[in-house]
Amino acid sequence: MTMPKKQNIDLFETPGEGEGKTAAPLADRMRPTTLDEFVGQERILGPGTVLRRAIEKGEVGSVIFWGPPGTGKTTLAHIIAQATGSHFVFFSAVLSGVKEIREVVRQAELQRDVHGRATILFVDEIHRFNKAQQDAFLPHVESGLIRLIGATTENPSFEVISPLLSRCRVYTLEPLSEEHLKAILKRALQDEQQGLKGLKPRVDAKAVNFLAEMSSGDARVALSALEFAVMTARAGRDGRRRVTLTTAEEALQKKALVYDKAGEEHYNIISALHKSLRGSDPDAALYWLARMLAAGEDPLYIARRMVRFASEDVGNADPQALSVALAAKEAYHFLGTPEGELALAQAAVYLATAPKSNAAYRALSSVQREVRETGALPVPLHIRNAPTRLMKELEYGKGYRYDHEHPDHYAGQEFLPEKLRGRRYYHPTAFGFEKEITRRLEWWRKKKARIREEGKKEAGGNKNRRKESPTKPAAAPKHPKENEGES
């Protein structure tokens, strides 16, 4: 799938005939029916990708699409059902329960036995499923009677039970780019059957650019705003409906950013704010903050970016930075404009003047790369919980040492999987509070080395004593905390 080329035109003009009307919203009417019509998500749907090959071959199993609203999750489910010739069932996790699940299963058996068709069950907002609903689906997904396609805006790792999640491939969808949205809007303007061409729209390029920029990667938002703008625009003497930047602003209920002579765009300005904070320049940070507020940017969007900055660029050099950023977000949410804007300014100054460290950010990236490369390594036995007799017999928790019963509350144990023993991912800087973290880590590493040496000497001494006397030593009394969580 190729990225749409950038539109270098000043006006989208479509000389349609008639004003055909339909009750369905434009976003639904313009829903792609084939992969060739689908725009965006090249990472998972580009030529040669696993998902694209599976769809083309009609061999798609159970999947979960995870991503923001308006990125194509529902559309992909429809395309998969059509490409595989499957019976498509829409299921709302909000409105349906276990009773409805039984009916879905009955219909799936009927489709399989009578018509020889597979059933694709599309579950919108699957993260709202409770455990009973998920358990009810599990055996039918496992048997292949139902192919599950779930759509969610929440992390499925936390919202979907492990047995169901393990039977599904998870694909992450990303917000659509501005060029993707422009291509989608242009197609809607030029489509006479399902689009807006019949209304004879004449849309300024600035209006299209604005809708693409301010829709936050959501095609549904962009198309809905475009439809409203065209429907409410007055027709001129030539019968065409002119949509200007002002019309688009009113339709989206957002103001365009204040562009300077260089034509800076929305993401350039937020990037300038982020880099000013990272560069410890409070004056520049305040300037770009004020620019965005004056342009009508959503203050909570700015607050979210500062919360992200507090973890990504300040981190543990000043652990208080995250609290300040979150407090600013809550203060604005409580006070609103204009009083709440002062809290954002206070947070911007604090973040700009805080010591900087991206050590936590780099550590997380390193660990995520490790997980991708090494997969699901087993948890070491000595730190597994052992609430049942069987687990104890399997030696879960055996050898665990309760740190609080050792000198300095530190037993010097190993917690990483055996294959990764000794790996280090977090490397604190020499700035701010991370200097103290560095000192603590170094103290613990030295103490662990001493404990390890003492353990080797003790093991050697025990070996010699066993050679001298065949008498088996009495077992040491077990501490009740050794298998924490026993029942």
Please characterize this protein's 3D structure.
This protein is α/β, with parallel strands linked by helices and 487 residues long. The chain has four domains: 11-21 and 179-252, Helicase, Ruva Protein, domain 3, CATH 1.10.8; 41-172, Rossmann fold; 269-353, Zinc Finger, Delta Prime, domain 3 (Up-down Bundle), CATH 1.20.272.10; 381-468, no CATH class. It is 49% helix and 8% strand. α6 links the parallel β4 (119-124) and β5.
Helices and strands in order:
Blueprint: E1 11-13, H1 26-29, H2 42-45, H3 50-57, E2 63-66, H4 73-84, E3 87-92, H5 98-115, E4 119-124, H6 131-143, E5 146-152, H7 156-159, H8 162-165, E6 169-172, H9 178-190, E7 201-204, H10 205-214, H11 219-232, E8 241-243, H12 245-252, H13 266-278, H14 282-294, H15 299-314, H16 320-335, H17 341-353, H18 359-374, H19 389-393, H20 434-468
Parallel strand pairs: 2-5, 2-6, 3-4, 4-5, 7-8
Antiparallel strand pairs: 1-7
Helix pairs in contact: 5-6, 9-10, 9-11, 10-11, 10-12, 11-12, 13-14, 13-15, 14-17, 15-16, 15-17, 16-17
Low-pLDDT stretches are: 1-21, 257-264, 471-487
DSSP helix count?
A: 20
Apparent shape: flat
Major sheet description: 5 strands, parallel
Strands across the major sheet, in which order? 3-4-5-2-6
What's a quick, concise take on this entry?
Helix content is 49%, strand content 8%. The protein has 20 helices and 8 strands.
